[in-house]
Amino acid sequence: MLAFGFLKKVLKYLNLLLLFLIVSLIPFAIGKYFQWETDKREREAISDKVRGIMKLYHCEDQEIYKAIMNTFDPVLVAVVIAVESEFKVNAISRAGCRGLMQLSPDKLDDWQNIHKNIQIGSAYLEAQLKRFGDLELAFAAYNAGPEAVAKYRGVPPYRETINYIKKAKRLVIAFNETLSGQAPEPPAEKRIGALF
Question: DSSP 3-state assignment of 88?
């Protein structure tokens, strides 16, 4: 009889502990759910923006879309592809750069491999963003090379690079107005100190 009473008390305390844990976990679970929903909406917005940029260039290639979505910043990578190759897989520049992200021949042998071309190009773009800390300078470095940006302590005075940056900015502005109806964020100030 004594053992039964003790067991009853233990079960009562275990039930209270279980109830406490359940009540404690409800806010955590709700928070996780809302975070998941927020992340899902953000991913959908990014996806819509990438598809919108691709649509401007009449590109519906799912392999290109998936490769872009697996980069560090899908929207930015889509903008660079639009400026570099207009989403033409077989694009070759006068300087011999190739593919969607216009890689130099020394960066990739199989330049028509969509996934590799975008992966290597986006890694290079990300490296320029980290090095210069400014989107305009990263665009300039992607186009003219980081050495030229460092040499001129800003955007090099090359007509091609200046036009490249203007085209990228126009695309971002047009794309933001088309998809969101909002004015784009003002560009970050140049951080020339980040060059060295």
Answer: coil
User: Which tokens belong to 92?
Assistant: 């070759």
Calculate what percentage of the chain has a pLDDT beyond 70.
Answer: 86
Rounded-to-integer distance, Cα 161 and Cα 40, Å: 36
Using CA atoms, how far residue 86 sits from 111, 146, 183, in Å, is 16, 23, 24
Q: Is the pTM of this model over 0.85?
A: no
Which domains are present in the chain?
45-195 (1.10.530.10)
- Give me the numbers of helices (H) and strands (E) for the chain, helices first please: 7, 0
Which residue type does 14 have?
L
Q: How far apart are the first and last CA of the chain?
A: 81
Closest CA to 165 of 196, 130, 128: 128
Two structure tokens written together for 8:
């009853």
Phi, psi of 181 (to 5 degrees): 70, 5
Q: Is 160 a catalytic residue?
A: no
Tens-digit pLDDT profile for residues 15-43: 888 888 888 888 887 877 778 888 888 88
pLDDT of residue 1: 58
For residue 6 the two structure tokens come to 């003790």
Residue type, 193: G
Residue type, 112: Q
What does the longest C-alpha to C-alpha distance in the chain come to?
A: 95
**Residues contacting residue 172 through CB under 8 Å, at least 6 positions apart:** 79, 184
Catalytic residue among 42, 84, 126, 147: 84
